[in-house]
């Protein structure tokens, strides 16, 4: 059942509290609050602020903006832009902690640098303004993407916290910043309804994480800076209506088809928005008891494998950064102790290297800590079934990473951040990866362009799926799972689906039924059975299996022995298949973080032509 927040704002002007009473974080003058931060935060940011003093602000060159169109590279521009953002945040916190004015001039330089920047739009996102393929931005035609929102949010919060000392330094700095925030963000938002992420234009593109990601920054810009109360109420009502479009895109199970990596900026950013609205209405807007809102938050719990490993279907990393404070706050908001415990378990350090990317979220975490007496261990759910996105997961024992863990998916190949992966499954043992979903490389122009499915990580041949007659799965919503069934008992969790519709007609597949099951009875194993019927016989059949562990082939058994000493064996019918192993070496920051420099693709290759057959894999720990 879908929910809507919009009707709650029928009397929005009366619900919004005055700016004088809106206090999301301590201002600079609240010395007790800033000096009460944990000592590790104080020491870290004082050191970072001192490192930034006296350095030139990095230059964003026209050539680096042009890289995206000319070469497809995003890194050179992003590196400089992110360094600017990081420096400003580091200087802000250092000044707030020390309180002596030593960093103020550098902060003013940082604000001025962003004000002088030609555009806050990322070069990869010029398409939102109809400028796809253009080398440089049009400064007279501003648009909003999630990077625009993050820059605006950082500037707004920086000035709000430091308003008094910055005004003493120069009254004109705040005026200039207000002009830039108004013309680049607020005016553009009020005047445009055609940005796809708003959800106001039907049948253009499905709303995804951009929506709450942008609003989690646009809301504080408006709430902290807009002076006209009537205009502010209209803008906030419009934001709420647009957030409704994001929420309406979710089915009742709250599943995020973009994966756990994007939960931070999808469901997690929605929580940020709800918290801003809750704060701005003195708690009178409260939707946390709604089942859908709760399920959206729990997705990150459902996709957790063990430690920092998460199920990473779609454009995700198997070892993503999932904000522990965000998970804890979501758990507290919906009163879910399991989610709070997961957040506690993910807290490896107080200061995160990614804090500067979400400064508002970081400040909320510091000044609205989730104190809890809950155990620090993650809940580790035994069984998960999300029927709407067709995602299942199962482990041998609830609350323990010991033993086998399996996850699998159905759905369709037109999902947000889609890979062609219907029927994909992964297997972990004792919390370690053995049969995997690779994830995604560092983004480039190809990632979201017409060449997306030429990238190897997007293709079904590099997932744990069959290739028939050389044909892989195709992209698009028409390529989908059918006849999906899930059964769970104490002794077994079983997931089955029909895959024929995920492949093109040329593959000649009349039926391809896959069953993935975890047997928790006496013989602990994961079983994968593919029953295939072809229109005409072919010997061109390959079963692909991806692993980070070098395989050893022994007759009808593949042995995977991880560096930690854990061993997994995969048994197959040696009368049906031979095995070919391909080593894949790569240098890619995203993939290296999860898998190191090497992966292996095992291909089980059919000995003879078949028209109808059944293939069985038995996967066990030894």
Q: If you had to describe this structure to a student in words, what would you say it looks like?
A:
The protein has helices spanning 12-15, 31-35, 39-52, 62-70, 75-98, 104-116, 146-161, 163-169, 171-191, 210-225, 229-248, 260-263, 267-280, 291-302, 324-334, 337-345, 359-367, 589-595, and strands spanning 304-306, 309-310, 383-386, 391-395, 404-409, 412-413, 425-429, 432-435, 466-468, 476-480, 482-488, 492-498, 509-519, 525-538, 541-547, 551-554, 557-561, 567-571, 577-585, 598-606, 610-621. The radius of gyration is 26 Å and the shape is elongated. The two termini are 45 Å apart. The relative contact order is 0.08. The longest helix has 24 residues, at 75-98. Helices cover 35% and strands 21% of the residues.
Topology of this structure?
Blueprint: H1 12-15, H2 31-35, H3 39-52, H4 62-70, H5 75-98, H6 104-116, H7 146-161, H8 163-169, H9 171-191, H10 210-225, H11 229-248, H12 260-263, H13 267-280, H14 291-302, E1 304-306, E2 309-310, H15 324-334, H16 337-345, H17 359-367, E3 383-386, E4 391-395, E5 404-409, E6 412-413, E7 425-429, E8 432-435, E9 466-468, E10 476-480, E11 482-488, E12 492-498, E13 509-519, E14 525-538, E15 541-547, E16 551-554, E17 557-561, E18 567-571, E19 577-585, H18 589-595, E20 598-606, E21 610-621
Helix pairs in contact: 3-5, 5-6, 5-7, 6-9, 7-9, 7-10, 8-9, 9-10, 10-11, 10-13, 14-15, 15-16
Q: Summarize this, please?
A:
With 622 residues, this protein is an alpha+beta fold.
